[in-house]
Amino acid sequence: MSLSFEGRVVLVTGAGGGLGREYALAFAERGASVIVNDLGADTKGGGKSSAAADKVVEEIRAKGGKAVANYDSVEDGEKLIQTALDAFGRIDVVVNNAGILRDRSFARTSDLDWDLIQRVHLRGSFLVTRAAWNHMKNQKFGRIIMTASAAGIYGNFGQANYSAAKLGLLGLANTLAIEGRKYNIHCNTIAPVAGSRLTETVMPPDLVASLKPEYVAPLVLWLCHEQCQENGGLFEVGAGWIGKLRWERTQGYIVRQKNQSMKPEAIRDHWEKICDFTDATKPANVQESLQSMVSVLSQVESQGDVGVNPAAAAASAGLGSGIDPTKAVGQKLPPTTFSFNHTQCILYALGVGMSTKDPDHLRFLYEGHPDFGCLPTFGVIPSQAAMMGGGLSSVPGLNIDFTQVLHGEQYLELYKPLPTSGKLTSEATIADVLDKGSGAVILLDVNTYSGNELVCYNQFSVFVVGAGGFGGKRSSEKAKPPVPPPKRSPDAVVIDSTTRDQAALYRLSGDWNPLHIDPSFAAMGGFKAPILHGLCSFGFAARHVLKQFADNDPSRFKAIKVRFVKPVMPGQSLQTEMWKEGNRVHIQCKVKETDAVVLAGAYVDLHGTSGASPENLSQGGGLQSELVFAEIGRRIKDAGSELVKKVNAVFGWEITKDGKKAAQWTIDLKSGSGSLHKGPYSGKVDVTMTVSDEDFMEVVQGKLNPQKAFFSGKLKVRGNIMLSQKLEVILKDYAKL
Ligand code: NAI
To answer: Would you give the DSSP letter of residue 332?
Structure first.
């Protein structure tokens, strides 16, 4: 169907000749009511005549079309629109076409040369368009054309004033396209080429004759038609050809490094890369332009980050790679400190999937819990700060591209349960650098101290893609190797789902690599979506072992080793398979949905249970209660299994003497065949009772009613108070001693 403009009212400025006349005739021919505006000036903006516009109006009318003339300058924008409203009652289309030239070499450009050009082209188009805008907005339809020029897009000798105005019109159109979109007002820009009185001085006569305005007008008609959804476009048009233009941007290059000032020398040194249009991007709006800029902030922030980051592997190497183990091995990174309190511990526990849905998790999620503690794998967090600091980049002999870094393996060993607050200092040393051919492996040993006391040790295995082949050794006695699981089927399997926001939550513990949150960054690495942190899956697997084989007791945890094999997507389920071999629990972790192994060669080493037999207990201490506990220990040895069935709880006792804590006992009637522990107990205690040595004896001898003792404050109870009822049964039993 042909494109009709029946019922549409079209204003063409500068329509007394050249391109404008052609547009006016073409619109009228297709049924539009046309306002033929022309000041009738000469090409430099001088003079004034109504003849030019009148002539075009006559031409249109002679062909049976509808047109009225307007002789105002575009600088009187309102008047042009008023003519349209008076004659036809509305305005649908504005073609900003009027123009003049005042070409001068830049040095000779006068104020007037400059101002007149800006006034007619840029300000004129602004005033006319603004006068039409609200009418278009109210009727929810409008089509606007801005006329730019190749001189503006590319520059042209002697046209500084004109180039500036013409590209100014493109900027204006870009924003009108955005502001008008929701009102169905579209604004597009053309850079035409046609023979006219403006070009006859610069083009040979035969070219002027053959580049006809009628080869430009059809594009203007299409862009102004209601069917056309193009908005914000820029087109070169002439000789019957039309092409669209857009911006292109190089991949660019980050010249800034974390904690270092940005220097012009760095820009000089990477100039080629900055200007290299290979794999150029085409940002289409301010958001896209800005997005990549903002992601640079986090990229710089996470320099030296060892999160699984093949993102980078896809991006081509930026820094030259060069490894010299003789220089690098033994180098120390600047020490880092990590201050934290229970908030970080809880946030980490949530990050590795702990939930209040599981009552056993509360001890890691609630700082008021009597056994509140830190998950053992939190030990990677303070040491990771040493890595995040970008320290690796300062090591001599390690000239590597940090965008090529992958987290290969992790070993963590705890020397004591982690505190839940405080200040930890980490010291990192390059333990070894290995040449694996396809890449290099950097073994980074990190010791973390609380004051002078060594709390934990981490070994990061960092794989640097493409950095191998420097003639180094392939293996190291300093490496903590992965160990394959036994061949039999696993002793235990735990399936646990990660949430859609698992990575968004985990990163708050300090691994800010945008690969785990920013879809465009993940896409650069060839991932459909941001991936879960390897150390997050590591945390999941470790707590599965802790629950399955160590009763969620952090003090039982000694060490963990994993090899990261494949990424996990947030929302997928992790299946941890476990094999217990003495104090070692071998683990393998899979994504349940795909059956892909994600953590391999992994294990957790536990400390043996610290159950003490009554015989080993110190008999001294001058407490009467000692004898009673010794007897309890004997009874448990004889009939523990039965009691475990009957009671199924762990009781803590704090015995005081002269108002001071004098002894601590735990009666475990929950696990195995029951046991008694003296001294601090780090496992889960269901209920803890504090009582003086004397009152304790009164109670066990049946002289003091435990309830009365409780209400009088002689017996204090923490934890599950209901369980103390069960204890009463046992105590009564022992009272018969
Ligand atoms: P033209 O000189 O034939 O037409 C321009 C018209 O605008 C003239 O009729 C003139 O009287 C009128 N005019 C000038 N000042 C005015 C004012 N203040 N108010 C109202 N009308 C005024 O030139 P041509 O070639 O048709 O150019 C049309 C538009 O296309 C201009 O904006 C020009 O800069 C642009 N252009 C043309 C190119 C070409 O190859 N012809 C190349 C690039 C851009």
So the answer is: B
Specify the pairing of strand 573-581 against strand 557-564: unpaired
pLDDT in tens, 34-67: 999 999 988 888 888 899 999 999 999 999 999 9
Ligand 1 proximity of 120 Cβ (cutoff 6 Å): yes
Q: Residue ranges of the alpha helices (H) in 499-622?
A: 502-506, 519-524, 534-550
Closest atom, ligand 1, to C-alpha of 196: 25
Task: Name, in order, each residue with C-beta under 8 angstroms of 14's C-beta and a sequence gap of 6 or more.
Answer: 20, 37, 38, 39, 74, 97, 98, 99
**Could you tell me if the CB of 52 is within 6 A of ligand 1?**
yes
Q: What is the pLDDT of residues 699-729, one digit of tens each?
A: 877 788 777 787 788 888 888 877 777 766 5
Average pLDDT over residues 341-362: 95
CA of 544 to the centre of ligand 1 (A): 77
Token pair, residue 467, equals 């950095």
- Closest C-alpha residue for ligand 1 atom 2: 198
Ligand 1: centre distance to CA 198 (Å): 7
Q: What are the CA-CA distances from residue 619 to residues 615, 680, 691, 731 (Å)?
A: 9, 17, 19, 20
Q: Which is catalytic among the residues 23, 71, 162, 411?
A: 162
Please work out whether the CB of residue 98 comes within 6 Å of at least one atom of ligand 1.
Answer: yes
Region label for 713, one of left (φ > 0), alpha (ψ between -120 and 50) or beta (otherwise): left
User: In this predicted model, what pLDDT tens digit does every residue of 491-508 receive, in sequence order?
Assistant: 999 999 999 999 999 999
- Atom number of ligand 1 nearest to Cα 19: 26
Closest CA to 301 of 256, 269, 357: 256
Q: Is 238 in the pocket of ligand 1 (CB under 6 A)?
A: no
Residue in 19, 50, 55 to alter for ligand 1 test, most ligand atoms within 8 A of Cβ = 19
pLDDT in tens, 180-195: 999 999 999 999 999 9
- Tell me the best of 125, 154, 198 to mutate to test the pocket of ligand 1, counting ligand atoms within 8 Å of each CB and taking the most: 198
Question: Is residue 36 within 6 Å of ligand 1 at its C-beta?
Answer: no
How many percent of the chain have pLDDT more than 70? 92
**Which of 449, 441, 452, 439 minimizes the C-alpha distance to 414?**
449
Active site residue 162: yes
State the DSSP string of 130-193: HHHHHHHHHHT-EEEEEE--HHHHH--TTBHHHHHHHHHHHHHHHHHHHHHGGGTEEEEEEEE-
193 lines ligand 1 (CB under 6 A): yes
* Number of Cβ within a 10 Å radius of residue 501: 11
Out of 347-356, 531-540, 685-694, pick the least confident: 685-694
**d(CA 100, ligand 1 centre) in Å:** 6
Q: Which atom in ligand 1 lies closest to the alpha carbon of residue 41?
A: 11
**Whether the CB of 20 sits within 6 Å of ligand 1:** yes
Tokens 């403009």 label which residue?
Answer: 5
Distance 195 CA to ligand 1 centre (A): 11
Indicate which atom in ligand 1 lies nearest the CA of residue 124: 18
Q: Is the CB of 77 under 6 A from ligand 1?
A: no
Given its phi and psi angles, is residue 353 left (phi above 0), alpha (psi -120 to 50 degrees) or beta?
Answer: left
pLDDT at 636: 80
pLDDT in tens, 319-329: 334 788 888 89
Angstrom CA distances, 27 to 97, 215, 225, 299, 329, stand at 14, 14, 10, 53, 78
Phi then psi for residue 206, to 5 deg, are -70, -30
DSSP for 69-107? EE---GGGHHHHHHHHHHHHS---EEE--------B-GG
pLDDT band at 282 (very low <50, low <70, confident <90, very high): confident
| 18 Cβ below 6 A of ligand 1 | yes
- If phi > 0 it is left, if psi is from -120 to 50 it is alpha, else beta; for residue 701 that is alpha
What percentage of the chain exceeds 90 in pLDDT?
59
pLDDT bin (cut points 50, 70, 90) of residue 365 is: very high
